[in-house]
Amino acid sequence: MKVTVVGAGNVGATCADVLAYREVANEVVLVDIKEGLAEGKALDIWEKSPINLYDTRTVGSTNDYSKTAGSEVVVITSGLPRKPGMSRDDLIQTNAGIVKSVTENIIQHSPEAIIIIVSNPLDVMTYQAHLVSKNDRTRVMGMAGILDTARYRSFLAEALNVSPKDIQAVLMGGHGDTMVPLPRYTTVGGIPVTELIDGGQLEAIIERTKKGGGELVKLMGTSAWYAPGSAAAQMVEAILKDQRRVFPVCVQLDGEYGIDNCYLGVPVILGKNGIEKIIELDLNAEERALLDISKGHVNEVMQVLDNMG
Ligand code: LMR
């Protein structure tokens, strides 16, 4: 089994490292445009194998996509990260062109690959990769739901002083400030979260989750990588091992939730064919209204991409 990760920056390298040490694939190819960067990071990960005890081969390539041929899954992390004061949408002008050319190269060498987008603005870059690859919508998806729910779950675990392992949650919508965490579908060891935390505290955690990426950008001057890279690797694992995990994933909606042609995070079953099923929750009026606001925002940014031609 072969996986390619495009972009050997912090997110791509973290993803490749997790894929290697968890032995998700036999071979992980890391690609970057910066001369030697992917080769160096791939070599560093390989040199760690006797310490962490794995045998996944890691291969680096400076923009030579022939090395990616026959990949079953490709993770695209390429593009600029945001800086303090920027929104993810501010990256569209630069990242749209990068995601376009990376997707063209990938499809040329691995026409069957399932594509996972990590580049921002996430939902619209998923749209871009879908347009360029012309793949079935079940085989082109965006990563961010696992990341956003992980932030939400980690904040809840801290507030409740419990293990993050016991927090289950789902979150919908775009990967931006309009994302929709769903307390009604959040449990702690099977107990509804609303029975364990007061409303004000839960609301503060939801607000922190929505701005979770920005909190890290402010702290570090650039965007996060451990959680985003690990989240993408978890999706690859679910696909390659046909685990049929249930995750929120960004996908083109085609009538689900009464929404057409918009790329939004929704709960799905992830398995060997990519998105095996989109799960439609019975949202209440308040949740539905929040999802519509998120959809409106993503549609606006999709329009920007359309206008760029
Ligand atoms: C994240 O949420 O960490 C990423 O989307 C990067 C960012 O700019 O916030």
UniProtKB/TrEMBL annotation:
Residues 147-299 form the Lactate/malate dehydrogenase C-terminal domain. Pfam families: Ldh_1_C, Ldh_1_N. Substrate binds at residues 82, 88, 120, 151. The gene is mdh. Residues 1-142 form the Lactate/malate dehydrogenase N-terminal domain. Belongs to the LDH/MDH superfamily. MDH type 3 family. The active site is at 175 (proton acceptor). Keywords: NAD, Oxidoreductase, Tricarboxylic acid cycle. NAD(+) binds at residues 7-12, 32, 95, 118-120. SUPFAM superfamilies: LDH C-terminal domain-like, NAD(P)-binding Rossmann-fold domains. It catalyses: (S)-malate + NAD(+) = oxaloacetate + NADH + H(+). The keyword Signal does not apply. Catalyzes the reversible oxidation of malate to oxaloacetate. The keyword NAD applies. One of its GO terms (molecular function) is L-malate dehydrogenase (NAD+) activity. This is Malate dehydrogenase. Its EC number is 1.1.1.37.
